[in-house]
Amino acid sequence: MELKVLTFVLGDEEFAIDIMKVDRVKEYEKTTKLPNSKDYVEGIINLMGEVIPIINLRKKFMLEDFEDKEKSKIIVIRFEENGKKMGFLVDDVKEVITLSGDKIDQTPEYSGLSAEFLLGIAKLENRMILILDVEKVLKKEEKLAIENIIK
Fold it and tell me: Signal sequence span per UniProt (predicted)?
């Protein structure tokens, strides 16, 4: 089994998302804040007439916030379950790579940071990449709360 992924950086770590879930990558755009939303909800943007909520992955994963958001990127993903889109604010986007199944390990049971969000860990020659399960980054009730605010 092969998995084609988009890699990105968050703090000191490298992450990846299944390329089939990615709608587009765009430069940082100032967001409109949402009232009564969680601190990791950066706000919303207008993307070609569509309202897209932006999730600050640094805050969601309890990392230190961005020093300069102007340098960050937004990865717009599309959820399989309902076709809705959401943006993930990340430090930088790196590349698209193909991972063979033998390079991907299951997430260890004991891992702490966001382990429930991970599909696995890719081990390459000189780097390890945490593979995100975008469907699980937000819990169902968190997705609903955001959807209800932007309706």
Answer: none
